[in-house]
Amino acid sequence: MSVDFEALAVEAESAVSTASDFAQLDAVRVRFLGKKGTITTLAETIRSLPTEERPLFGQRLNALRQAVTAAIENRKAFLEAETDAAAFAALDVSLPGNIPNVGTLHPLTQILDRAVCICRRLGFALATGPCVETEFHCFDALNTPADHPARNEQDTFYFHNGRLLRTHTSSVQVRVMEKNNPPLRIIAPGPAFRRDEIDATHSAQFHQLEGLYVNRKVSVADLKGTLDFFFRELLGTGAELRFRPHFFPFTEPSFEIDVRASGLGDRERWLEMGGCGMVDPAVFDAINKSRSDQAFDPEEWSGFAFGIGLDRLAMVLFGIPDIRFLAANDLRMLRQFAV
Question: What would the DSSP string read from start to end of 97-109?
Answer without folding.
Answer: PPPP------HHH
